């Protein structure tokens, strides 16, 4: 299971900054990641949307769109969010802690 | 003969007396006029002084009322800190523009006709299920059913709303406040907080009234510098999440621009509001929704008009032509956040301090 991270098979898999892989240096905390299709291939140009869990800060209404490598950066404040990619992507629960960036894979169909 | 001499003497005496009295009277009147002029000048000076004091107190009061002396302090991406030397203003009037655009006139105004990069080719025109109560919790700030309507972007004020791209991908929404300045959210120009950073001005391109394909009806232009406030760039405080962009073109003369004003907090509740912008789930098309202000805090207004990621920076406005006797759209808040736990979207509203910041930003020389 080493090497390339596997795409998430189901929604609601918790990810926290404590256990997340370190990502490239960032200016602020938040969530980074890659959007893949059902066969694990990166998908470009997908809208990644976030919604705040109760008690978490509100989500900026930015358009976060994956680049040519399927990568995205979401500058979210510390809190717990559900992230999904595309209109029918599976939601993933992510916890952001102060000073840390979370790296997560999302699946779109 | 004696009678004639007496009469002549009487007339001469009367003339002499009249002249003496007249000169004294004229001198007195002259002195009175002079004194009055001095008095009026003193009054005018005192009035102007009191006005300056009152304006200063009003400004301070506005800052004090919002507690925003520090957090609303203006900052700019290029380190400039221009302060407009005119009197503080509580509003700025809108313009409906000329709309008489041709490619050559737009290019003369600094626009170019680059086609926007495809931002969401795999998404298509996604729609949100009608009546899906969970929609607001799925990352879209659609509250209840999707009430958005597609906007005609060549009519005012929709043509004064811009699609903002960053590095060729959809990023945010903005709106003209002058010929060359647009208002937007703070997080559209800076990532927020002391560990955050400015997005490079050169990474942006704005498309007024963009509508689906091609280079856009008015072309596009690049960004010279960006602005926000310390409450966002130092503290990452959602209450202070607003900013602006200075453009390298004057397309606002063609599209027109929004007026903006500082309402009093007590008048905001239940006020009708309209929002129009560029949601990421409907690529490169402008969509409009409306509601009323359902909640107000010292810094933000809350509403259930539908928004989606990409709507950040959209104008929240209403029609104030009755009260202000000026036609056009008058903005009073800058949309910034999707649904909170109460399923309401939100925007920092324009206090006097914020109106002053926007006026400084639009009046800053190039």
Could you characterize the architecture of this molecule?
Chain A has 109 residues and is mostly beta strands. Chain A has no helices and eight strands. Chain A has strands at 15-16, 30-36, 47-52, 64-65, 71-74, 79-85, 92-96, 101-107. In chain A, the strands form two sheets. In chain A, strands 1-7-6-3-4 form a five-stranded mixed sheet, with no helix packed on it. In chain A, strand 6 (79-85) and strand 7 (92-96) form a beta hairpin. In chain B, 27% of the residues lie in helices and 22% in strands. Chain B has seven helices and 17 strands. Chain B has helices at 2-66, 103-108, 230-233, 252-255, 265-268, 321-324, 352-363, and strands spanning 74-76, 91-92, 149-150, 161-166, 169-176, 181-184, 204-208, 221-229, 243-247, 259-261, 272-277, 287-292, 295-296, 300-303, 315-319, 329-334, 345-348. Chain B is elongated and about 115 Å long. Residues 50-69 and 118-140 of chain B have low confidence and may be disordered. At the A-B interface, strand 3, strand 4 and strand 6 of A face strand 5 of B.
């Amino acid at each position: 299971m080493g090497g390339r991270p596997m795409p998430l098979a189901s929604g609601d898999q918790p990810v926290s900054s404590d256990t997340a892989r370190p990502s490239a240096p960032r200016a602020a905390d938040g969530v980074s990641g890659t959007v893949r299709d059902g066969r694990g291939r990166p998908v470009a140009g997908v809208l990644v949307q976030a919604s705040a869990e109760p008690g978490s800060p509100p989500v900026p209404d930015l358009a976060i769109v994956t680049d040519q490598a399927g990568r995205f950066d979401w500058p979210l404040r510390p809190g717990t969010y559900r992230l999904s990619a595309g209109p029918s992507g599976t939601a993933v629960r992510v916890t952001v802690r102060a000073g840390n960036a979370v790296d997560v894979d999302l699946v779109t169909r | 003969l004696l009678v004639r001499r007496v009469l002549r003497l009487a007339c001469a005496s009367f003339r002499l007396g009249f002249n003496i009295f007249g000169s004294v009277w004229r001198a007195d009147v002259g002195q009175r006029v002079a004194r009055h002029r001095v008095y009026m000048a003193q009054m005018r000076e005192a009035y102007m002084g009191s006005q300056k004091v009152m304006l200063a107190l009003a400004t301070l009061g506005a800052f004090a009322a919002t507690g925003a002396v520090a957090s609303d302090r203006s900052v700019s991406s290029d380190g400039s800190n221009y302060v407009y030397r005119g009197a503080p203003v509580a509003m700025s009037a809108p313009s409906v523009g000329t709309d008489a655009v041709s490619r050559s006139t737009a290019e003369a105004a600094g626009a170019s006709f680059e086609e926007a990069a495809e931002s969401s080719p795999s998404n298509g025109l996604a729609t949100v299920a009608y009546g899906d109560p969970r929609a607001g919790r799925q990352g879209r700030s659609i509250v209840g059913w999707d009430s958005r309507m597609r906007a005609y972007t060549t009519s005012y004020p929709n043509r004064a709303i811009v699609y903002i791209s960053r590095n060729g991908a959809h990023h945010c929404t903005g709106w003209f406040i002058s010929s060359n300045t647009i208002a937007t959210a703070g997080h559209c120009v800076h990532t927020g907080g002391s560990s955050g950073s400015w997005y490079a001005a050169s990474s942006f391109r704005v498309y007024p009234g963009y509508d689906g394909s091609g280079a856009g009806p008015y072309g596009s232009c690049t960004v010279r510098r960006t602005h926000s406030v310390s409450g966002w760039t130092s503290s990452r405080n959602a209450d202070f999440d607003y900013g602006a962009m200075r453009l390298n073109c004057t397309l606002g003369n063609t599209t027109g621009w929004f007026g903006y004003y500082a309402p009093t907090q007590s008048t905001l509740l239940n006020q009708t509001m309209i929002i129009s912008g560029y949601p990421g789930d409907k690529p490169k098309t402008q969509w409009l929704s409306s509601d009323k202000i359902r909640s107000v805090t010292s810094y933000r207004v809350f509403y259930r008009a539908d928004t989606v990621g990409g709507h950040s920076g959209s104008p929240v406005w209403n029609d104030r032509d009755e009260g202000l006797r000026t036609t056009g759209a008058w903005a009073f808040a800058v949309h910034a956040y999707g649904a909170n736990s109460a399923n309401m979207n939100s925007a920092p509203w324009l206090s006097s301090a914020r109106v002053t910041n926007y006026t400084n930003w639009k009046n800053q020389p190039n």
